């Protein structure tokens, strides 16, 4: 079963809630995770159950990052606010770096989130199998 994380900066929370409402049927049956307030707002607007971590500035980004580092996350939707400085910017950078290091698809804006979720809905979300095929054989 796929593990999906939702994160949104304050001025993007309404956007992520609307996004998840629009694709609620795609997210049903998946293991869903989120930082605190984002997860609460999504659960209030949908019938989805979400494992909520701490708020981002209080360590929630790092908790999701730990799942990424343990190869236990399949997709991260992180709607960032590029026009507002964040007090926990080092944590955000670390989370995105972990996605890059471990090859985890991450959407940081609505356009990329749409593309990834539509692929998930079509059943075209087999990136782990592709990564395995492309890995050089160990000798």
From TrEMBL:
Its EC number is 4.2.3.3. The active site is at 61 (proton donor/acceptor). It is an enzyme of class 4 (lyase). It comes from the Bacteria. Residues 1-139 form the MGS-like domain. PROSITE patterns: METHYLGLYOXAL_SYNTH (PS01335), MGS (PS51855). Transmembrane segments: none annotated. Pfam families: MGS. The gene is mgsA. This is Methylglyoxal synthase. Keywords: Lyase. It catalyses: dihydroxyacetone phosphate = methylglyoxal + phosphate. InterPro entries: Methylgl_synth (IPR004363), Methylglyoxal_synth_AS (IPR018148), MGS-like_dom (IPR011607), MGS-like_dom_sf (IPR036914). Catalyzes the formation of methylglyoxal from dihydroxyacetone phosphate. Substrate binds at residues 9, 13, 35-38, 55-56, 88. Belongs to the methylglyoxal synthase family. NCBIfam families: MGSA, PRK05234.1.
